[in-house]
Design a protein that fits this description.
- The structure holds three protein chains of three kinds.
- By secondary structure, chain A is α+β, with helices and mostly antiparallel strands.
- Chain A folds into three domains: 49 residues, 2-Layer Sandwich (Uridine Diphospho-n-acetylenolpyruvylglucosamine Reductase, domain 2), CATH 3.30.43; 113 residues, Uridine Diphospho-n-acetylenolpyruvylglucosamine Reductase, domain 3, CATH 3.30.465.10; 89 residues, Enolase-like, domain 1.
- Chain A has eleven helices and 13 strands.
- A five-stranded antiparallel β-sheet of chain A has the order 4-5-10-6-7. Chain A has a three-stranded parallel β-sheet with strand order 1-3-2, covered by helices on one side. In chain A, strands 11-12-13 form a three-stranded antiparallel β-sheet, sandwiched between helices.
- In chain A, helix 5 packs antiparallel against helix 8, helix 9 runs antiparallel to helix 10 and helix 10 packs antiparallel against helix 11.
- The longest helix of chain A has 19 residues.
- Chain B has five helices and five strands.
- Classes of the chains: A alpha+beta, B alpha+beta, C alpha+beta.
- Chains in contact: A-B, A-C, B-C.
- Chains B and C meet through helix 2, helix 3 and helix 5 of B and helix 1 and helix 17 of C.
């Protein structure tokens, strides 16, 4: 595969190049997906230019203001997992990013990369979904922000256009009292993609009623999404074993509704139910 | 395909090379700089045999395009032996603890271990496992590798 | 006499190069003006080749040569019926059709994509049982059925009918194992160069068995064997795997090297390696066992099918070993065993650490546990009751415990169970499992005996040459290869011990077929067992020469000369001495004595009957017992191996640290085999071709492993050493599934025990 390598020094230049070479250009950042495609010769033959954004400072930051956490698109999984702001406000995201690949992969792979590949099993995505994450997308002339849950079209395909670049992922700071959890099920104890994963974020008031509940299972639907029907079972109620059981069953049936009955369903159906039950029991501290 | 000029520092030495853009950092280290201690095992970022330290972090050099290493500082296994025959304590400990069999994973394994001890001079077993989880070894069953890293840490701490 | 050099955990003699990155593996070897070769592989599991269009590829700038089957100068059928390149029909997706040699790797990669092959698809033969029954559809049309040549091995002992008649309980069970990959971290590499000095070819690479490559390439190239020279590079793990695949690579690159008169290098990608190299044979093991109420086994009958793929890759050897070990380490009076290798249009089976044992031990050790359950006996007691003891007869009729061969199974099982606190743990876990509905704990046992070396498979010869240089430095070369297992360190220790010198004097050169004779392959855990004997033989010859000169110099009898710790002196008169280096000087400069000697070891063949399988299978055996503790999440199917305690009698360890390293490594490969490894195919196409979908254990998967070394005296091997390489892998999978049964009350008869099997009791497939 032959291509020219472009290394713009700022974001505007990246957008300009994306526009100029529209359709013939591909972005590389951490490269942990790109390099596999290169090795397997699976890059589109139309590609003539590669734009490297891995060294762009403009894309590498974790910031907070009064309301929000803002993460530059080029921030690596390890930078996120070890960041004090993230650990304080969004431990669910720290845990999810820390579960990705190996230390080597986490040192290169970026948050935007994990999102833009649009794998149904992406680990950061369920965490960002329960944080109501938003994706900021830039072109040479426009900037827009869309909720992460609207970002995916189908497995391995997102709404990002050829002249667009993800520049930022942000989410509102959840109330400090929020509790959360992330669980990833794998075949091997390290360096493995998720067989199933799930993220949960919840807030209970002083009489234990659930005020906020967000549940996002991964690897069970074509595109990751929040399971709002399931959330509604528990919302505004005090959590009980029975309610949690009902919610867990709901996750299973929603999975089949959305994905149909596939080769893996026989396994995933009971297991995602168990995972949901366990994570809700733990996060909501139901005895 | 326009060649690109790559300037970077490898094992303390400045290099300026002209490389084709589709080369990986792995290829440049092995082919242009003859640093054959960097091994290629899977080419998809799984096995860790090509691990080097780039700007203080371990990375798979098969997962980095050459141009992405522009202005970076790289350390490979060749950089651990400061002078001929003077082994780094980790290298010596790998020998003493029996952590080497076929030796193909060893350079990558050493780089991940080196990086660990740089930031954590006295790691416990779980920290060791986490640090080298991205380096596969098919020969040793890992046990003697863990022993080696503990032994090196102990010796290095005693020295300092 | 106390040993000076052996039985010590010395550092590897090839360690310095490996920790500094200086060791050259195949990919690190380059020759000036070299070309890069790449193979065009079949697109179908079975098809007729109608046309191969090379034009476009030939026109590509930088392409120097392209070969197809037509260009093979000699035979196009190598060992095991492997073609250099498929001529008329492709028989699996790894068959090569054409090979390109180009100025760069990149150009070669582009060129293979420009080669167009027209096929006529044929329905592939994929299912092993169907291939056995259906003799109309044949993988090889010159055969009458799909049973691999010489792969039917049998064992007939006692009277099987009578045996079962006398049984109080009879169980019939079937066990299955999958294709698995050796997964060495170094992919295969071969470089062939036109011999710079004479007619012929020189081959370098990651070659486990240089002599079989030499012999096959000679036939392919229509050369004399002496005109082919093979030198192995530093090998990054092999475990039986770098054999036929590198033979094919060597054939292809040699043809290209001779045609282009340039060195030709072929480096496989991981995907190519997984496609083209052999896998462990999958087994279907149909067992029937009969026993008395008290647990005494009276009869075992088994019919085993082993999947070979399209070529005969050692099924005939592996099946023999399997047939000998099919009834495990137990006294069984009546045995009927039949092993069959089967051709299919799939990836092919072959040698992978254990060579039938990982499959067979999984089968028989599961079966014994099932029998124990049926009889309501403890898994430990049933093993103690039936395990071979001195005076018992093995399945082959071989009398155990004769000629000072120890048979310490009972002692090993007892001690391992004691160290593992087996009975207490069984009770403890039972209590735990009563209290926990989802998370369960279990403990399982397995034990084994393994014939050391080739035994009846072939003659266990080996050769070694030791040369002492003017300065007293010593070079050792063996006809067996170092692949990481530590053989050359063991050999160096043995040589130093034999000669009475320090290990520092020893250095090693890589096996080179042109300078040392073929002593057989480096397989069957015989590197130390047979190779070590050859080293002793060479060392003794040299020592004798040295003593003779020393006796003249010291003016005393040769018989009283002692050479020890680099000193040469008269027994009982230590002051009458000469320094070792000085003695070497005298030998070479004054006396003109040859200080190079070859040692050859030949234990002779084992005598076995082909009709009944009866006879002495192996000269001696190694033994093991393991207790494995697991924790199971019954809801998700996650199985965590918590602890493995394993005891082995491998004789006297030449290097205890390296012996343990071999066992730890084998144990972890066994854990992968039991828990996660499976080479998946669908309709003959591969679904697994790299480490992202072929999972091997990471460091996070290792349990607490405790290895106990027993050393029951056995003087068969060199300095009491026996075999170690393959033993470690055998016990984990069976003890794991036995522990799983103990934890969950579910019996799994097919490995790996992955998430689906552990939670649903069956596998799911895409």
């Amino acid at each position: 595969m032959d291509f020219d390598f472009l290394q713009p020094t700022d974001l505007d230049e990246v957008c300009k190049l994306l526009n100029e070479y529209k359709g013939k250009v591909k972005i590389i950042s951490g490269g942990t997906d790109f390099m596999i495609d290169l090795h397997k010769d699976e890059l589109s033959p139309e590609i003539e230019y590669i734009i490297d954004v891995s060294n762009l400072r403009d894309l590498n930051y974790i910031k907070e203001d009064d309301n929000k956490i803002i993460i530059g698109a080029g921030t690596t999984h390890n930078e996120i997992a070890n960041n004090p702001i993230v650990n304080k406000w969004a431990p669910v995201l720290a845990k999810a990013t820390n579960s990705i690949g190996s230390p080597q992969i986490r040192n290169r792979g970026t948050l935007a990369g994990n999102i833009v590949t649009a794998s149904p099993a992406a680990d950061s995505v369920p965490a960002l979904l329960v944080l109501n994450g938003k994706v900021k997308i830039k072109t040479s002339s426009t900037t827009k922000e869309i909720p992460l849950e609207d970002f995916f079209i189908k497995p391995y395909q997102s709404k990002i256009n050829q002249d667009e670049l993800i520049v930022e992922i942000s989410f509102k700071k959840p109330p400090m009292e929020c509790k959360s959890g992330f669980k990833k099920l794998t075949r091997r104890k390290a360096v493995d993609k998720a067989r199933l994963n799930i993220a949960v974020l919840a807030l209970q008031n002083n009489i234990d009623e659930i005020e906020i509940l967000r549940i996002a299972p991964g690897s069970i639907t074509p595109t990751p999404e929040r399971f709002e029907k399931t959330e509604n079972i528990l919302l505004n109620k005090r959590p009980t074993k029975e309610l949690i059981k009902k919610a867990a069953e709901q996750v299973s049936s929603t999975m089949i509704e959305k994905s149909g009955y596939r080769w893996s369903t026989e396994y995933k159906k009971p297991v995602i139910k168990t995972m949901t039950r366990r994570i809700l029991t733990r996060v909501l501290e139901v005895e | 395909m326009e060649t690109l000029s790559l300037e970077f520092k490898v094992n303390g030495q400045e290099h300026k090379l002209s490389v084709t853009p589709n080369k990986r950092l792995l290829d440049v280290l092995r082919e242009d700089l003859n640093l054959i201690g960097v091994k290629e095992g899977c080419s998809v970022g799984e096995c860790g045999a090509c691990t080097v330290i780039m700007d203080g972090k371990i990375i798979n050099s098969c997962m980095v395009l050459a141009g992405q290493a522009q202005n970076s500082e790289i350390l490979t296994v060749e950089g651990l032996e400061k002078e001929e025959g003077k082994l780094h304590p980790l290298q010596q400990a790998f020998l003493d603890a029996g952590a080497v069999q076929c030796g193909f994973c060893t350079p990558g394994m050493l780089m991940s271990s080196y990086n660990l001890l740089q930031s954590n001079p006295d790691p416990d077993e779980e920290e060791i496992k986490d640090a080298i989880a991205g380096n596969f070894c098919r020969c040793t069953g890992y046990k003697q590798i863990i022993d080696a890293i503990k032994l090196a840490a102990e010796r290095m701490n005693r020295q300092s | 006499m106390k040993a000076d050099v052996i039985n010590k955990s010395s550092n590897r003699v090839d360690g310095y190069e490996k920790v500094t990155g200086k060791a050259k593996f195949g990919a690190d070897i380059n020759f000036g003006n070299q070309l890069y070769a790449k193979t065009v592989y079949s697109e179908y599991p079975r098809a007729k080749i109608k046309k191969i269009k090379l034009n476009k590829a030939k026109k590509l700038d930088g392409v120097v040569e392209i070969i197809t089957a037509e260009d093979v100068p000699g035979t196009n059928e190598m060992f095991g019926r492997f073609p250099v390149l498929a001529a008329e029909e492709v028989k699996y997706v790894g068959d090569g059709i054409a090979v390109v040699a180009a100025e760069s790797q990149e150009i070669a990669k582009k060129a293979v994509k420009l080669i167009v092959v027209e096929y006529e698809e044929i329905e592939p033969i994929l299912d092993m049982k169907k291939a056995v029954k259906d003799t109309k559809e044949l993988v090889h049309s010159d055969k009458e059925d799909n049973i691999i040549e010489h792969s039917h091995h049998l064992m007939r002992k006692g009277d099987i009918e009578k045996g079962f008649k006398g049984a109080d309980v009879i169980l019939e069970r079937t066990y299955y194992t999958p294709f698995v990959d050796q997964a060495y971290i170094e992919p295969e590499v071969v470089i062939s160069i036109p011999d710079p000095y004479r007619k012929g070819i020189e081959i370098h690479g990651s070659i486990q068995n240089p002599y079989s490559v030499q012999e096959n390439i000679a036939k392919v190239m229509d050369h004399k064997i002496s005109e082919v020279k093979v030198i192995h590079s530093t090998i990054g793990g092999s475990f039986g795997g770098k054999d036929e695949s590198v033979m094919m690579m060597a054939a292809r690159t040699s043809i290209l090297a001779e045609r282009t008169k340039r060195p030709v290098k072929m480096v496989l990608t991981r995907e190519e390696s997984m496609t083209e190299s052999c896998k462990r044979h999958p087994y279907e093991m149909n067992y029937k066992i009969g026993a008395k109420k008290d647990g005494t086994i009276v009869a075992i009958q088994d019919e085993v099918y082993t999947q070979g793929g399209p070529y005969n890759n050692k099924a005939m050897f592996a099946n023999w070993r399997g047939s000998v070990h099919a009834t495990g380490p137990y006294q069984v009076d009546n045995v009927k065993t039949d092993y069959y290798g089967v051709y299919t249009n799939t990836i092919y089976g072959g040698a992978y650490r254990g060579f039938s044992a990982p499959q067979t031990v999984f089968g028989i050790e599961s079966l014994i546990d099932e029998l124990a359950e049926e009889l309501n006996m403890s898994p430990k007691e049933i093993r103690l009751k039936n395990c071979l003891k001195p005076g018992d007869t093995f399945a082959t009729g071989q009398k155990m415990g004769k000629d000072n061969i120890p048979i310490p199974l009972k002692e090993i099982i007892k001690e391992v169970c004691e160290k593992a606190d087996y009975e207490k743990k069984v009770k403890k876990f039972k209590e735990y499992n009563k209290k926990h509905s989802e998370i369960k704990k279990g403990i399982g046992i397995s034990c084994t005996l393994r014939g050391a070396g080739l035994g009846g498979e072939g003659i266990d010869t080996a050769g070694a040459t030791i040369t002492i240089d003017k300065d007293g430095s010593i070079t050792l070369i063996s006809d067996l290869t170092e692949m990481g297992q530590g053989m050359r360190t063991a050999h160096a220790q043995i040589a130093a011990e034999t000669l009475g010198v320090s290990l520092e004097r020893l250095s090693f050169i890589n096996t080179d077929t042109s300078i040392i004779m073929d002593g057989g392959p480096t397989v069957a855990s015989r590197g130390t067992l047979a190779g070590g004997q050859a080293v002793i033989a060479a060392g003794k010859k040299l020592k004798d020469r040295l003593k003779k000169v020393a006796a003249e110099k010291l003016n005393c009898d040769k018989e009283v000369i002692i050479i020890k710790n680099d000193q040469v002196y008269e027994y009982d008169n230590v002051n009458n001495m000469i320094d070792f280096d000085e003695l070497i000087g005298v030998c070479i400069a004054e006396k003109g004595i040859s200080l190079s000697a070859q040692g050859w070891y030949n234990p002779g063949p084992e005598e076995l009957s082909e009709e009944t399988g009866q006879g002495n299978a192996y000269p001696t055996y190694v033994y093991g017992c393991a207790v494995t503790e697991i924790i199971v999440d019954t809801k998700t199917g996650e199985v965590g191996v918590e602890k493995i305690i394993a005891g082995y009698d491998i004789g006297t360890p030449i290097n205890p640290q390296q012996v343990k390293g071999q066992l730890y490594g084998g144990i972890l490969q066994g854990l992968g085999y039991g828990l996660m490894e499976e080479f998946e195919q669908k309709e003959g196409y591969l679904k697994t071709d790299n480490f992202d979908d072929y999972l091997i254990p990471s460091i996070k998967d290792i349990p607490d492993i405790n290895v106990i070394l027993f050393d029951f005296e056995d003087d068969f091997g060199p300095y009491g050493a026996k075999s170690v390489g393959e033993l470690g892998i055998e016990l984990v999978a069976p003890s794991l599934v036995n522990a799983f049964k103990n934890a969950t009350n579910n019996r799994i008869r097919e490995i790996p025990l992955n998430l689906e099997r552990a939670s649903l009791g069956k596998n799911l497939s895409k």
